[in-house]
Structure formats: structure tokens, C-alpha cells
């Protein structure tokens, strides 16, 4: 029973750190939280050292709340801004070498299935656009070809944020950034298209303008990965520093980009559709 | 995990389930053995069969491919629980680390260029305190391209914090692999181990190997028994994420990073006592007290043995130190073995002379012997016994 994992022995709870007690008593273990409940429960991630106003942190916060079973989830990340916040979450986090996420997650997930045949463990890769589409491209694609049962979430800020603003494969054509002094020559990589060709079972493109939709999308992706096959979410998480977006305008930028070229889209395989119809029809507890 | 293309029948029993678990001590030191005449790759297969491996991930490269495709057949028979061909070596080395982090026994193998390609991942294993087994069939890495044996690649592993064994022959490859499999699991070790062997000379040639019965396998890896928790989310995760000290790289204090490294290298030393027992000494000494000594590891030991034998026939006593564990480095044992030597030869199968450098830094100020950095062959050349004998004769002439 999942909640038992974090249940302290009787008599011990009062001696544990207050933060831990709060997680057990007021956290999201064993429950499904709603976006509208934010602020009313102990969240898995509460502080981070990322830039003020960074949209990526909002997305990561939502992703943690959306985890369908945080007590049996493992996050896999890599070099890049996102790991600064992900590593602060109360979910085990693997931080390997830059770009190794999907290879690492493949071995991890298969090994967990050997050790815990009766307990599904959710493995979630959350990494930057550079980490996935450039240096980690091969691992990403091959994990999809192999239909590895974990979720990949691309934190697509369209730039190498953590190294100070260089062009990435996900940067749009023409954009002037470091290492693209005359503007990016090639087009933004069609990662959604690649995922489709590779046979990924659930693919979604999203901008965090609607928290409830973000959470629903993440849940769907994790549930499909648990039972069916690979899943991929590409989230626009703007970098206000490198793109010089004034902090109060970060959400306006998100709405604008969403409207212009980053509209919500889901591409779902037939077997994943069937599966989702089944799980989502069950009455809510 | 994956739905196999060719499904097993419903009543299929994995062969591994029929084996009995025993300790490495019992497997290596107590069980009766039967002699077979097999290649080094087959010796590795027989070790893997008995090593109770959970996950093996492979990427082909000459001369390693033989071994990892044999591992594929072992998986098909049910001696290994999970197996696939990875995308390339950095992917394989990362995936093996992912599996090891989850608390299972993981194994892979590679050769020269594959090792170099996977090197970023490999060199991160010790600090991550994951403990996979890496079999390394040495092969040239320098340009021009060649597939020949040459163990220069081992010099790149020496300071990673990995445990490193160097097998002389097919028998060693079998024994060392099983010894390593158990040693890496000790709670005071929890480190990866690379078992190197000189490619082709050992992997593709036959030699006598005495094997304990295949009815036995080593006790399984217990994922709970690590010096850091396995990454399985069975421990309360309240900000005690297993990788915490390493992942906050920008914020971690220099002291914290330094002490983490110190602990890794201390763990390397702590593994010594286990190897001492399972390998019956971390060095082997022939003709102790001799004036002339040869210190060697890997295939060079065999050449040295033959030189020692031929010298013996001529009535001259030449000593030999075979170094089995490159890490932990048996420095004190080597000092004790050669303290009265006058001349020391260090034959190697690489251009860099990494063993020579190791020995020199150990013996400096500890012994009066003149140490010769050679003979050396590389690029796939064999080392004729005559070459060792010539070097010995020359050494005696130059330093009487
Ligand atoms: C092998 C290797 N190459 C390069 C780097 C340097 N590096 C660290 S983070 C990073 C860029 C991160 O960009 P992205 O993945 O898009 O994530 P973001 O920071 O934008 O969220 C790079 C190039 C590294 N850590 N390792
Ligand atoms: S550099 Fe950009 S992506 Fe990174 S934390 Fe700052 S705003 Fe966010």
C-alpha cells in the first residue's frame, strides 16, 4: 500500500522534522490535489533558486502537484535550469550527466520492474530543450523507438538558459542568441513530429496558461506511460532572462506565444485513447 | 519489461530460478571444479551465468561483442532478467547506471573506443555510488584505427574511483568477474568495478578454465544494502534525495565535494580486504627474494612467466610480481615483495607505460632497484619471450 512508504512508526512522528510531519499530515501523498487547492496543502516543492518570475518554475510546481502517485515516482533530470527546482522536490531525483536522461531512465524503469513486480513506479524525465533535442537526442529517440514506459517532459524555453543564453535546436529560426550571432539558421526542430513518427503513445504540446489543463495533461502522460508506452510533453516555459521578458509580462508572453504558434495539442495513439477512456470514465473518489 | 518478439511458453521456467544461491567465497574457494578448454569470451559467459545478473545492456564492439551476445543467450535461457542492445556506449553506460541506482545487479562490457565514448558516464559512477560490473576487452584506441589488443585505455580509468582488476588469462577472467560481482555489493564498498582483459589474446583464444558447477549462482544483490539508499522511492524522500549532495553542483560547498571524493577513494581502499581473500592475494609473487624481478599485469604476466621459466632452465632465478588489482593499488605488497631487488622490468602492452608509472611512484624511496620501463609492445603486437629475455640480459649488463 503506497501510503505506508511514508508512514512513520507509531510514536516517532512527533520527533520527525516539522516539514516531514507536514508532508505526512497535510501533503499530497495518497490524494489527488486540484489546481484550485494550491496554497491549501503541503506541496512537494516549495522553494527553489531559479530566477524570479521564471515560467519554468510555475510549470515544475504544477507538474509536482499533478503526479498521480508521488510516493512511487522518481524524477530524472540533467544539467539545465529545471534541475535547480526539481532537486528541491520531495521526490527522489536522479541528476546524471548532461543529456543522459532517457538512457538512464530506460535502465532505471526496467530495473524497478524487476525489483517491484507488484508496485508500479512512475519514472518522469524532466529536462531542457537542449538536454533533450541536442545532446540527448539519440537517447531520447531510442527510448521512444524501444517504447520505454516512462514520461519525457521537455521544459522548452527555446534556449540554453543555464549556460547563459545560447541557441538550441528548439530555438525558432532567425532568433539572435549567443552562438547564433547572425540569427538561428535552421528551423525549430519538430520534436512533436519526431515523437509521432517514433510511435510515442501520448504526445502533448502545452503552455502553462491553464493550470488545470497542465495537471490533466501530466497525469494523462504518466498514466499512459505506466500501462501503455512512451509519452512526451513539450511545454513552453519561457526564459525571461535570456529573452528579456519583464517579470510582470511573463504570463502575457505565454498567452501570446500560445496563440501565435504553441497551441494546446494532443496526439494520442488508439491504444492510449482506449486506455484513457477506460481510466477516465471511472467515478471520481 | 518489453514484450518479447518471441514469447516464452507459459510454463517456461527461467534457468536462473533453478540455480542455488551461494556466496562468492564458496563459489570461488570451496566448490569442486571441472576443467574446460574455452575462450575468454566463453569464460566471461560462464561467470555471468553464475553472477545472478539482473540487467545486462550491450552495444557491440570488437572484441567485446562475443561476450555480450553470449549474455543475450543467457538472457534467453533465463539466467539474466533483462537485456537489450542500447543505442551506443554513452547510452549504455547511463542505462546501466540507471539500473544500478534502482538497486539491481547490472553488467555490461565494452572495448577501447566504446569505453572512451562512454567515459563521461563511466567516470560518474563512483561518485554516484552505483556499482555495476564492466567487463573491458582491451583494444587500441589511438588513430590509425585498429581492432588489435593494446591496453592503453586502462590508463584513463585509473583515477576515476572505480575498482580495477586486470585478468591474465581465461581463468582469471572467470574468477575476477565473480569476485568483483560480490565485492562491489559490500556496504563499505558500493563502487563499480571494471574487469579488464587483453582483447583477442584472451577473449578469442582458448585456455584451460576450471569451473564450479553451473547449478550455483551468487547471492542476489540486495537493493537495501547500499551505503546510500537505492533510487526506488521506498525511503521517505523528504529532501534526502539520494543524489542530493552531488546534484546541487552550483551550491555545494567545496568541503562537501572534497569529502565526498575522499570517501569514494577510501571505499576503494576498503575493498582491498575482500579482494585479498577472494583472489587469494592482490598480488602473486614467484621466486621471492630474487635480484631480478618482473612486475606485470594482464597478458604480460604470461610472457613474464615463460621468461622466468626459461631463465630458471639456465640456472638464473628471476622473480615475478603479478598485479591483480590495479585499484585498489597493492602498493605495500609490491614494496614488500621487491624490497631487495636490484633490477626490475615492467613489460606492458601499451605505449604509455601506465603500470611503469604506478610502480615507480610506489617504489620511489622504498627500494634501491633500477626500474626499467619495458619491454613494451603496442598496436596489437605480441610480446615474444625473447624480448623479455633480451631486456633482462641488457639490464644485467648495464647494472651489474
Ligand atoms: C557534456 C556536457 N556538455 C555541456 C554541458 C554544459 N551545459 C550545462 S547546462 C547546458 C544548457 C542547458 O540548456 P537546456 O538543456 O535547454 O536547459 P535550460 O537551462 O535552458 O533549462 C549546457 C550546455 C554539460 N554540463 N555537460
Ligand atoms: S535563466 Fe531563464 S530558464 Fe533559467 S531560471 Fe532564469 S529565467 Fe528561468
Automatic annotation (TrEMBL), chain A:
Is Transferase among the key words of this record?
no
Q: Which InterPro entries match?
A: PorB-like (IPR051479), THDP-binding (IPR029061), TPP_enzyme_TPP-bd (IPR011766)
Q: Does the keyword Oxidoreductase apply?
A: yes
Q: Name one GO biological process term.
A: small molecule metabolic process
Q: Which UniProt keywords apply?
A: Oxidoreductase
Q: Name one Pfam family in it.
A: TPP_enzyme_C
Q: Which residue range or ranges hold the Thiamine pyrophosphate enzyme TPP-binding domain?
A: 94-226
Give the molecular function GO annotations: oxidoreductase activity; thiamine pyrophosphate binding
Name the chain's protein: Ferredoxin oxidoreductase
UniProtKB/TrEMBL annotation, chain B:
In what residue span(s) does the Pyruvate:ferredoxin oxidoreductase core domain sit? 290-366
Q: Name one GO biological process term.
A: response to oxidative stress
Q: Which CDD domains match?
A: TPP_PYR_PFOR_IOR-alpha_like (cd07034)
Top-level taxon of origin: Bacteria
One Pfam short name: PFOR_II
Please state every residue range assigned to the domain named Pyruvate flavodoxin/ferredoxin oxidoreductase pyrimidine binding: 47-264
Sorted alphabetically, the keyword list is: Oxidoreductase
Q: State a single Gene Ontology molecular function.
A: oxidoreductase activity
Q: Does the keyword rRNA-binding apply?
A: no
Q: Oxidoreductase as a keyword?
A: yes
- What is the name of the protein in this document? Ferredoxin oxidoreductase
Amino acid at each position: 500500500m503506497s501510503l505506508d512508504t511514508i508512514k512513520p512508526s507509531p510514536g516517532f512522528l512527533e520527533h520527525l522534522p516539522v516539514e516531514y510531519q507536514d508532508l505526512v499530515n497535510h501533503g499530497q501523498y495518497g490524494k489527488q490535489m486540484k489546481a484550485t487547492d494550491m496554497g491549501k496543502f503541503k506541496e512537494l516543492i516549495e522553494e527553489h533558486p531559479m530566477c524570479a518570475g521564471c515560467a519554468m518554475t510555475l510549470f515544475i510546481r504544477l507538474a509536482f502537484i499533478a503526479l498521480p502517485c508521488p510516493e512511487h515516482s522518481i524524477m530524472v533530470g540533467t544539467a539545465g535550469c529545471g534541475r535547480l527546482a526539481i532537486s528541491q522536490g520531495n521526490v527522489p531525483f536522479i541528476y546524471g550527466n548532461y543529456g543522459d536522461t532517457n538512457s538512464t531512465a530506460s535502465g532505471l524503469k526496467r530495473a524497478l520492474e524487476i525489483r517491484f513486480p507488484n508496485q508500479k513506479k512512475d519514472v518522469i524525465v524532466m529536462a531542457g530543450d537542449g538536454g533533450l533535442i541536442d545532446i540527448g537526442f539519440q537517447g531520447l529517440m531510442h527510448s521512444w523507438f524501444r517504447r520505454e514506459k516512462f514520461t519525457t517532459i521537455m521544459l522548452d524555453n527555446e534556449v540554453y538558459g543555464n549556460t547563459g543564453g545560447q541557441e538550441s535546436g528548439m530555438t525558432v529560426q532567425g532568433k539572435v542568441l549567443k552562438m547564433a550571432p547572425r540569427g538561428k539558421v535552421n528551423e525549430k526542430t519538430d520534436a512533436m513530429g519526431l515523437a509521432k513518427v517514433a510511435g510515442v503513445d501520448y504526445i502533448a504540446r502545452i503552455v502553462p496558461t491553464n493550470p488545470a489543463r497542465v495537471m490533466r495533461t501530466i497525469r494523462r502522460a504518466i498514466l499512459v506511460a505506466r500501462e501503455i508506452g512512451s509519452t512526451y510533453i513539450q511545454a513552453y516555459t519561457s526564459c525571461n532572462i535570456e529573452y528579456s521578458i519583464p517579470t510582470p509580462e511573463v504570463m502575457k508572453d505565454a498567452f501570446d506565444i500560445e496563440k501565435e504558434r504553441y497551441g494546446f495539442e494532443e496526439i494520442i495513439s488508439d491504444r492510449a485513447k482506449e486506455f484513457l477512456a477506460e481510466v477516465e470514465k471511472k467515478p471520481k473518489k | 519489461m518489453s514484450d518479447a518478439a518471441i514469447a516464452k511458453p507459459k510454463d517456461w521456467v527461467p534457468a536462473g530460478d533453478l540455480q542455488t544461491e551461494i556466496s562468492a567465497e564458496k563459489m570461488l574457494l570451496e566448490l569442486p571444479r571441472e576443467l574446460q578448454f574455452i575462450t575468454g569470451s566463453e569464460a566471461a559467459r560462464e561467470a555471468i551465468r553464475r553472477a545472478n545478473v539482473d540487467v545486462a545492456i550491450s552495444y557491440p564492439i570488437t572484441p567485446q561483442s562475443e561476450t555480450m551476445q553470449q549474455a543475450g543467450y543467457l538472457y534467453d535461457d533465463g539466467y539474466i532478467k533483462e537485456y537489450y542492445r542500447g543505442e551506443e556506449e554513452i547510452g549504455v553506460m547511463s542505462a546501466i547506471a540507471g539500473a544500478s541506482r534502482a538497486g539491481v545487479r547490472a553488467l555490461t562490457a565494452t572495448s577501447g573506443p566504446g569505453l572512451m565514448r562512454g567515459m563521461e558516464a563511466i567516470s560518474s559512477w563512483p561518485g554516484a555510488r552505483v556499482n555495476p560490473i564492466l567487463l573491458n576487452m582491451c583494444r587500441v584506441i589511438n588513430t590509425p584505427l585498429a581492432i588489435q589488443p593494446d591496453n592503453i585505455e586502462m590508463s584513463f580509468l585509473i583515477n576515476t574511483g572505480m575498482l580495477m582488476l586486470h585478468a591474465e588469462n581465461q581463468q582469471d577472467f572467470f574468477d575476477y568477474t565473480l569476485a568483483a560481482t560480490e565485492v562491489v555489493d559490500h556496504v563499505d564498498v558500493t563502487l563499480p568495478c571494471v574487469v579488464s582483459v587483453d582483447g583477442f589474446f584472451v577473449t578469442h583464444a582458448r585456455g584451460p578454465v576450471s569451473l564450479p558447477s553451473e547449478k550455483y549462482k551468487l547471492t542476489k544483490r540486495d537493493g537495501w544494502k547500499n551505503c546510500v539508499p537505492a533510487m526506488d522511492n521506498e525511503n521517505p524522500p523528504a529532501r534526502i534525495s539520494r543524489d542530493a549532495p552531488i546534484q546541487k553542483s552550483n551550491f555545494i560547498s567545496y568541503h562537501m565535494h572534497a569529502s565526498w571524493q575522499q570517501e569514494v577513494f577510501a571505499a576503494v581502499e576498503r575493498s582491498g580486504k575482500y579482494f585479498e581473500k577472494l583472489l587469494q592475494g592482490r598480488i602473486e609473487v614467484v621466486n621471492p627474494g630474487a635480484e631480478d624481478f618482473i612486475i606485470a599485469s594482464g597478458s604480460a604476466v604470461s610472457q613474464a612467466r615463460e621468461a622466468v621459466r626459461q631463465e630458471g632452465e639456465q640456472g638464473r632465478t628471476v622473480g615475478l610480481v603479478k598485479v591483480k588489482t590495479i585499484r585498489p593499488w597493492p602498493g605495500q605488497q609490491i614494496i614488500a615483495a621487491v624490497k631487495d631487488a636490484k633490477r626490475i622490468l615492467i613489460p606492458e602492452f601499451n605505449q604509455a607505460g601506465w603500470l611503469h608509472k604506478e610502480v615507480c611512484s610506489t617504489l620511489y624511496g622504498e627500494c634501491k632497484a633500477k626500474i626499467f620501463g619495458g619491454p613494451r609492445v603496442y598496436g596489437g603486437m605480441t610480446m615474444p619471450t625473447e624480448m623479455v629475455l633480451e631486456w633482462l640480459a641488457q639490464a644485467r649488463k648495464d647494472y651489474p
